[in-house]
Amino acid sequence: MAATKPNVIFVLGGPGAGKGTQCTRIAEAYDYVHLSAGDLLREEAAKPDSTLGKEINEHLKNGSIVPVAITCKLLENAMKNSGKENFLIDGFPRNKDNIDGWQKAMDGKVNIQCVLFFDCDEKTCVARCLERGKASGRTDDNEESLKKRIITYNESTRPVIQMYEKDNLVKRIDASNDVDKVFQDVQNVLNNIKS
Ligand code: UP5
Ligand code: MG
């Protein structure tokens, strides 16, 4: 990380809202590194020598939230190792404990530019994940895990978004539209962002 504070955009929204898809598009068009907390956890759990694999996998399957110390460390390492300064942090923070853990580790060290909130109705989210589940190999793209993921999102992550709304950081995007339309709306937000 450079001497100036790195810029961070948190990217939130329900399971299947399109966070990853849009982050990929953003990273292609803008100077941002895409860090998906979920992907980092899946990669860590897949390491043959990982001591955390069992614990992480249980959380993924149950749609519950991995202890913040684990997720935060993975994010911090990925930020450091990238050598870059602008980050899209996809799927984090998911609850109050995540915010507290992040603040403990990162307070004053990063500039949070905004929270991109991909707002998508539950039915569409579930349908997208089930469709993806036919080929994704993700242990949580099934009806049982999805029920739990949706509950966790509603109970734990929506309050996080509401909290950031009070700080005027949230940029809400209608994520039920097609990928290109969603990306147009994203561009409108990013082109007006202060660095
Ligand atoms: N798709 C995307 N956009 C579309 C559009 N506009 N129209 C039609 N189709 C669209 O998209 C999902 C699917 O929909 C894809 O097939 C895509 O082609 C299509 P994607 O972009 O992958 O959506 P995304 O929002 O990224 O969905 P994802 O399933 O990744 O969201 P989750 O938030 O559920 O998953 P994540 O990987 O972030 O987290 C998984 C688990 O990790 C959590 O449940 C939790 O257990 C754990 N976790 C933590 O504990 N802590 C963290 O900080 C993060 C994760
Ligand atoms: Mg994702």
TrEMBL record:
Residues where ATP binds: G16, A17, G18, K19, G20, T21, R132, N177
InterPro entries, per the entry: Adenylat/UMP-CMP_kin, Adenylat_kinase_CS, P-loop_NTPase, UMP_CMP_kinase
EC number annotated for this UniProt entry: 2.7.4.14
Enzymatic reactions: CMP + ATP = CDP + ADP; dCMP + ATP = dCDP + ADP; UMP + ATP = UDP + ADP
Region LID, annotated ranges: 131-141
Cofactor note: Binds 1 Mg(2+) ion per monomer.
A Gene Ontology term for the protein's cellular component: nucleus
SUPFAM superfamilies tied to this protein: P-loop containing nucleoside triphosphate hydrolases
GO function terms (MF aspect): ATP binding; nucleoside monophosphate kinase activity
Principal subcellular localisation of the protein: cytoplasm
One GO BP annotation of this record: pyrimidine nucleotide biosynthetic process
Residues annotated for a ribonucleoside 5'-phosphate binding in this entry: R42, S64, I65, V66, G91, F92, P93, R94, R138, R149
Superkingdom as given in the UniProt entry: Eukaryota
Gene3D superfamilies (alphabetical): P-loop containing nucleotide triphosphate hydrolases (3.40.50.300)
Needed cofactors: Mg(2+)
UniProt comment concerning the protein's domains: Consists of three domains, a large central CORE domain and two small peripheral domains, NMPbind and LID, which undergo movements during catalysis. The LID domain closes over the site of phosphoryl transfer upon ATP binding. Assembling and dissambling the active center during each catalytic cycle provides an effective means to prevent ATP hydrolysis.
Recorded family membership: Belongs to the adenylate kinase family. UMP-CMP kinase subfamily.
Entry function: Catalyzes the phosphorylation of pyrimidine nucleoside monophosphates at the expense of ATP. Plays an important role in de novo pyrimidine nucleotide biosynthesis. Has preference for UMP and CMP as phosphate acceptors.
Full protein name: UMP-CMP kinase
Taxonomic source organism: Rotaria sordida
Lineage of the organism: Eukaryota, Metazoa, Spiralia, Gnathifera, Rotifera
